[in-house]
Amino acid sequence: KNQVEQSPQSLIILEGKNCTLQCNYTVSPFSNLRWYKQDTGRGPVSLTIMTFSENTKSNGRYTATLDADTKQSSLHITASQLSDSASYICVVSFNTGGFKTIFGAGTRLFVKA
Amino acid sequence: NAGVTQTPKFQVLKTGQSMTLQCAQDMNHEYMSWYRQDPGMGLRLIHYSVGAGITDQGEVPNGYNVSRSTTEDFPLRLLSAAPSQTSVYFCASRAGTGYYEQYFGPGTRLTVT
Questions:
Q1: What is the dihedral of CA A89, A95, A97, A101, to 10 degrees?
Q2: pLDDT tens digits, residue range A57-77?
Q3: Most CB atoms within 10 A, among A87, B35, B81, B87?
Q4: In B, which residues are within 8 Å of A51 by CB distance?
Q5: What secondary structure letter does DSSP report for A41?
Q6: Can you tell me whether residue B83 is helix, strand or coil?
Q7: Are B92 and B27 contacting, i.e. CB atoms less than 8 angstroms apart?
Q8: Quick check: helix, strand or coil at residue B37?
Q9: Which of A42, A38, A110, A30 shows the shortest CA–CA distance to A73?
Q10: Contact partners, residue A56, CB within 8 Å, separation at least 6
Q11: How far is CA A109 from the centre of its chain?
Q12: Residue A28 DSSP symbol
């Protein structure tokens, strides 16, 4: 069964600290993986997009990694800021005669001063 | 460039009522989608369109209708609202499948009593 699982469900960190969010998937055949940031009451906004040939993709203080062999991805946030408080969603796309997408349930990050 | 817009922002319906959620995009994107987001779950695809006049069902289409008469607009109709349709609804658009960026609207929070 095609699934996307994210961990942890929620995380609290102090401002200025780093953190890493995890995404494991069982989707096949893999097409691409995206990380989104969703602020409370807003729609998701794309952070990174990676295909199977890309191991790392950065967007400012956000760095996503992908291991297509183990079907794992991580999102590392460096020097967190209060504005990083949001949900982070991992999304995996695959193509089985039609293009499909599965959204993870997200990790809720709280950054405290 | 407004991106993806949705109206209304909030809506309360009684069971059995019908309504239309509006979605528009000004990026000339061919692909548009409707998702619902429920607590603890990833976004789920309701209906999607690959161009004007072409629509198809997603993962959870029951109780919803769509049409796509223009490239810009993609309304979602609830035929007879049920409490199980209480959710946050997001419209999204993209230029194509695969590696293309997907842009989300701000969402409509719907409560059915």
A1: 0
A2: 999 999 999 999 999 999 999
A3: B35
A4: 99
A5: T
A6: helix
A7: no
A8: strand
A9: A30
A10: A63, A64, A65, A66
A11: 12
A12: S
